[in-house]
């Protein structure tokens, strides 16, 4: 019996629904935004959504993108489209953020073969099922995917991954071919790594890459290459690594010991390929993590960014190497690294950039070359650079004077410069390329000075002499005018003082009657009745016109009036009010006392002390009970030095006891606890346990979870007088808080001082 038509139709519909449900990804959206840049604010997408075209499948030789059209991910976090960069308006197909106003690109397809005109740029699915970038003017394929199986569908995932599918199976994905950005969910392997842009405006492959470091691939490395990355490792140089992965963090990245906003995962290299990836960790449940990305910058630094929707700005969370001058080959051959944020490189005197256009676009890799005649002749001299660090050249050392050293270098055209040590009379001639020149003038342990070969220019010397004479004349005139002006002001001030009778240095008063010498002579009867004699003069009895009796002291030497007045007013017991000490010891990190090297973590300690004062609404030191400033009872005994007491309360979870009582219940307890725990982290005894200021900002913003810190034992030991790891031997008791040393600034109550006086 033949099957019922209704049964056949039901089976067909059921199969259709099963196939539709088996598709793991949503369909792409094609739209036509008006902006030439495809990164726009979300509110700008409303109009384009109405004109969107949903694709059920991709036909062969079908144009999917052209001009300003874009494809969005499901929640409009990312979008695929063409963008332009550079002075020549070069056009690229790439993926960028769609939900932020700042154009930021995380993947570029045709980075080595840009299209000249945006109007002729198209992205198509070819007859063999590959995604291709085509220049319509020349009908040239500039880039294509490497999939073997034909693609029947194209989708942009919410993670920023562009995938080609065949019946729901991924046959190609952009995450397998990263450019300069490492996104959450993307993996680094032994065969795929990040490659920097050539410059800030040129996405072409640069000289820097982020790779898994062989042989065990348990660490991430920054690598410099002289050739195209991936073709050869013969000219590669590793200049920074994360250190080995220990299962939880990298040994060379101590910041990861604090609760991190990323979860890294490492697959053992023997199964069968090493894979390293990371995902975002949401601090608050139900709250979407912030946008984040790792980027190998064109300057050779690995940087980590998070997006702030409040400031609409990418915050640099972390970067390595911290000093850009430690990036290998950053300034190229004969380029001097100055470390500036906008332009870290400059050419030595007598040199100029090899490529001015690239140099202006922050691509310094081609370095510098000699100005003037580049031929090897006798018209060469040497220019002193100073004490520097360098890499790259072949060095020939011998003992000789500087003149002999220069003669040897001038006789060889491949000699670029020399190093000479005056003390040892050692000469080092340098041949070939001179990379990583970095000024070390402040390092007194190095005596070798660098001299580079330059072009002699007699006209330039004459001009320099004329300029020196002119500058000398101007400086001389300015000095004469300055000295004359200072003398006139001094004489004028002295004349005014004489008129006012202020030559003895007595400080001025405003509401007291001033007597002349003639009046005092009459009041005392010609200084006839002497009452006594002091260190500065004799005291005489006098009677004013209103019959008031007074004592008049006649000074026997000039300049003693103010000194004597202060001595009699203040007294010997209160001399400490005039003895002050520079600096604020309450905020100083323990490293200052112990005499070890000071780092930026010393400022973190001071910031932690300030946070505690802000949280408690009081000074950290308010005087022990014996001095009358600590209150009464056990609570006053413990709380006179606030930091150790507050740290114990915060670690125990008693944040209410620490917060300023005047706030009552108007504060957020969770925020107050976060601020308190961050402060305790900042005042840790071991500086390596203190977070960086960048990490402090993230913890205060709530981006990074704040764990409970260990109690800082050193400040507690200083308060109790106990020794802590030898600190008691290095820090005398007079340096501890509450000491009665005369050098320590002591505050005196005004009322008590007045009554004593």
From TrEMBL:
Membrane topology: Single-pass membrane protein
Catalysed conversion reaction: L-seryl-[protein] + ATP = O-phospho-L-seryl-[protein] + ADP + H(+); L-threonyl-[protein] + ATP = O-phospho-L-threonyl-[protein] + ADP + H(+)
Species assigned in the record: Fraxinus pennsylvanica
GO terms for MF: ATP binding; protein serine/threonine kinase activity
Coiled coil regions, renumbered to chain: none
Keywords tagged on the record: ATP-binding, Disulfide bond, Glycoprotein, Kinase, Membrane, Nucleotide-binding, Serine/threonine-protein kinase, Signal, Transferase, Transmembrane, Transmembrane helix
UniProt-annotated stretches for the region Disordered: 729-757
Residues that span the membrane, as ranges: 467-490
BP GO annotations: recognition of pollen
Binding site for ATP: 553
Signal sequence bounds: 1-21
Domain Bulb-type lectin: 56-177
Name of this protein: Receptor-like serine/threonine-protein kinase
Lineage: Eukaryota, Viridiplantae, Streptophyta, Embryophyta, Tracheophyta
Family designation: Belongs to the protein kinase superfamily. Ser/Thr protein kinase family.
């Amino acid at each position: 019996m033949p099957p019922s038509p209704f049964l056949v139709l039901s089976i067909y519909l059921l199969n259709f629904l099963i196939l539709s449900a088996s598709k793991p990804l949503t369909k792409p959206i094609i739209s036509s935004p008006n902006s030439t840049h495809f990164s726009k604010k979300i509110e700008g997408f409303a109009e384009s959504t109405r004109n969107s075209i949903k694709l059920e499948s991709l036909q062969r030789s079908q144009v999917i993108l052209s001009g300003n059209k874009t494809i969005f991910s499901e929640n409009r976090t990312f979008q695929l489209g063409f963008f332009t960069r550079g002075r020549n308006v070069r056009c690229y197909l790439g993926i960028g953020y769609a939900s932020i106003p700042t154009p930021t690109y995380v993947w570029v397809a045709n980075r080595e073969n840009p299209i000249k005109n945006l109007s002729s740029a198209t992205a198509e699915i070819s007859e063999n099922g590959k995604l291709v970038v085509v220049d319509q003017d020349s009908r040239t394929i500039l880039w294509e995917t490497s999939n073997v199986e034909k693609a029947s569908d194209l989708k942009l995932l919410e993670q920023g991954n562009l995938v080609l599918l065949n019946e729901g199976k991924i046959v190609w994905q952009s995450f397998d071919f990263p450019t300069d950005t490492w996104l959450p969910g993307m993996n680094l392997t032994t065969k795929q790594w990040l490659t920097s842009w050539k410059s800030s405006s040129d996405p072409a492959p640069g000289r820097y890459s982020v790779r898994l470091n062989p042989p065990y691939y348990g660490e991430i490395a920054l690598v410099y290459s002289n050739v195209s990355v991936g073709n050869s490792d013969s000219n590669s140089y590793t200049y920074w690594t994360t250190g080995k992965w220990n299962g939880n963090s990298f040994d060379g990245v101590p910041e990861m010991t604090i609760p991190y906003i990323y979860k890294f995962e490492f697959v053992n290299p023997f199964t069968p390929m090493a894979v390293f990836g990371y995902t975002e960790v949401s601090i608050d449940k139900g709250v979407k993590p912030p946008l984040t990305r790792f980027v190998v910058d064109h300057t050779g630094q690995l940087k980590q960014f998070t997006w702030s929707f409040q400031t609409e700005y990418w915050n640099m969370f972390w970067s390595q190497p911290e000093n850009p001058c430690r990036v290998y080959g950053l300034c190229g051959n004969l380029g001097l690294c100055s470390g500036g944020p906008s332009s870290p490189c400059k050419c030595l005197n007598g040199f100029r950039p090899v490529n001015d256009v690239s140099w202006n676009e922050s691509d310094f890799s081609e370095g510098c070359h000699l100005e003037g005649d580049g031929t090897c002749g006798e018209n060469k001299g040497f220019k002193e650079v100073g004490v520097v660090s360098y890499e790259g050249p072949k060095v020939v050392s011998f003992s000789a004077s500087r003149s002999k050293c220069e003669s040897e270098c001038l006789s060889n055209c491949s000699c670029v410069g020399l190093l000479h040590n005056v003390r040892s009379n050692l000469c080092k001639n340098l041949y070939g390329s001179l990379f990583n020149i970095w000024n070390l003038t402040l390092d007194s342990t190095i005596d070798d000075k660098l001299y580079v070969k330059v072009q002699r220019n007699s006209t330039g010397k004459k001009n320099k002499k004329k300029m020196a004479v002119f500058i000398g004349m101007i400086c001389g005139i300015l000095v004469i005018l300055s000295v004359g002006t200072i003398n006139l002001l001094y004489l004028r001030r002295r004349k005014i003082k004489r008129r006012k009778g202020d030559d003895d240095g007595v400080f001025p008063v405003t509401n007291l009657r001033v007597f002349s010498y003639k009046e005092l002579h009459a009041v005392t009867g010609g200084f006839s009745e002497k009452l006594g004699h002091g260190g500065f003069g004799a005291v005489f009895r006098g009677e004013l016109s209103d019959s008031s009796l007074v004592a008049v002291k006649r000074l026997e030497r000039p300049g003693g009036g103010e000194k004597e007045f202060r001595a009699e007013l203040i007294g010997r017991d209160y001399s400490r009010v005039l003895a002050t000490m520079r600096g604020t010891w309450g905020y100083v990190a323990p490293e200052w006392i112990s005499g070890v090297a000071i780092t930026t973590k010393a400022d973190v300690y001071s910031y932690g002390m300030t946070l505690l004062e802000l949280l408690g609404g009081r000074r950290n030191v308010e005087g022990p009970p014996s001095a009358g400033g600590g209150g009464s009872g056990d609570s006053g005994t413990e709380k006179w030095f606030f930091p150790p007491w507050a740290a114990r309360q915060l670690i125990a979870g008693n944040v209410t006891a620490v917060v300023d009582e005047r706030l009552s219940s108007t504060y957020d307890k969770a925020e107050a606890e976060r601020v308190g725990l961050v402060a305790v982290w900042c005042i840790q005894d071991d500086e390596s346990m203190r977070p960086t200021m960048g990490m402090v900002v993230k913890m205060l913003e709530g981006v990074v979870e704040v764990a409970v810190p260990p109690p800082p034992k050193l400040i507690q030991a200083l308060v109790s007088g106990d020794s802590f790891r030898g600190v008691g031997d290095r820090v005398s008791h007079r340096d501890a808080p509450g000491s009665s040393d005369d050098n320590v600034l002591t505050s005196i109550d005004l009322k008590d001082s007045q009554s004593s006086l």
